[in-house]
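[step 3/7] inverse_fold.run input=structure_tokens len=339
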């Protein structure tokens, strides 16, 4: 009887489990330098803000260990006071710079996706090689958008998390910290930042498939996204029900501290609302105007700080819906043109 022999199975290469499918691997190899540079810039910006946050905390500790105060800069206290104030002022400026950077990121992301990532291949015809290798146009576009979305979500999430940490924990003793509803802060410390970045990616893809020309697609994407990040936030005060406070006519209109003012004006005896500027005339006293319109008080509609997350989530959902619609349109248009 012949003895049975078995050949030991070769050990499975663990790297195979993490190998990307061919379409995704091709995109990664083709654009790996740009993608790595993008991730590196995200990490560098986050590290810079973290370093500044730690530095201002160190400056505050050093200043607290002295016998000096902001109001007392005599007797050798001028240097410590200036050092601490300079550190705090620069920290607040860097928060604003980071917030504005995150606000313009959707425009830059959309331009990159529209131009170098998609439109250039469509313009030069290099996409034909991929489509002849059993790769459908839909998978070709999906690979580009999926990898781009992964980089965008990871990078913007990192920046938003660091920005929120620095803004909520940093000192604000001498220089007033920007309120939560200020555009550069609101748009950079929550999921709204990620939603707008994905909208930029989707608009870039649609522009590239529609125009098939690198410069025209980049220009169109920039125009659309500049309009989006400028105009869409104008609807922000109306995305959630406001709260209202009223004052008697002898008091000026006001809004509670840390609240997002939405609308304010005058109240009449029958409860009607009038614009606050109606009786503000440089050439006459306001009292006759108050009497004429039977003004009895003031009102102020506002969002308290507790409305931050409801407003963020509603706006995020709306922006993501627009991004999904643009992405769907890009795939439908690509399928129609390659049918």
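[step 3/7] decode complete -> sequence:
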């Amino acid at each position: 009887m012949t003895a049975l022999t078995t050949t030991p199975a070769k050990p499975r290469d663990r790297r195979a489990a993490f190998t990307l499918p061919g379409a995704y691997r091709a995109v990664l190899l083709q654009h790996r330098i740009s993608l790595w540079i993008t991730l590196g810039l995200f990490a560098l910006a986050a590290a810079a803000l973290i370093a500044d946050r730690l530095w201002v905390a160190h400056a505050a500790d050093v200043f607290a260990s002295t016998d000096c105060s902001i109001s007392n800069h005599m007797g050798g206290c001028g240097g410590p006071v200036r050092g601490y104030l300079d550190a705090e002022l620069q920290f607040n400026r860097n928060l604003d710079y980071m917030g504005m950077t995150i606000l313009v990121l959707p425009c830059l992301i959309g331009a990159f996706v529209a131009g170098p990532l998609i439109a250039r291949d469509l313009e030069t015809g290099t996409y034909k090689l991929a489509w002849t290798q059993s790769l459908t146009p839909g998978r070709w576009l999906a690979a580009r958008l999926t990898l781009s979305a992964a980089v965008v979500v990871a990078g913007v999430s990192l920046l938003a998390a660091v920005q929120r940490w620095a803004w909520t924990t940093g000192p604000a003793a001498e220089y007033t910290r920007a309120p939560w509803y200020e555009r550069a802060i609101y748009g950079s410390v929550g999921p709204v930042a990620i939603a707008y970045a994905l909208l930029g990616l989707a608009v870039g893809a649609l522009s590239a498939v529609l125009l098939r020309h690198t410069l025209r697609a980049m220009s169109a994407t920039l125009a659309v996204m500049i309009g989006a990040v400028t105009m869409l936030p104008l609807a922000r005060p109306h995305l959630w029900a406001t709260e209202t406070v009223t004052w008697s006519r002898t008091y000026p209109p006001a809004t509670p501290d840390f609240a997002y003012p939405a609308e304010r004006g005058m109240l009449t005896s029958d409860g009607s609302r009038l614009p606050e500027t109606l009786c503000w005339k440089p050439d006459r006293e306001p009292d006759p105007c108050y009497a004429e319109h039977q003004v009895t008080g003031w009102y102020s509609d506002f969002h308290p700080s507790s409305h931050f997350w409801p407003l963020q989530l509603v706006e995020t959902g709306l922006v993501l819906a627009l991004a999904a619609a643009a992405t769907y349109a890009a795939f439908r248009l690509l399928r129609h043109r390659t049918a």
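[step 4/7] annotate
Residues 12-18 have pLDDT under 50 and may be disordered.
The chain has two domains: 22-70+77-234+312-338, 243-307.
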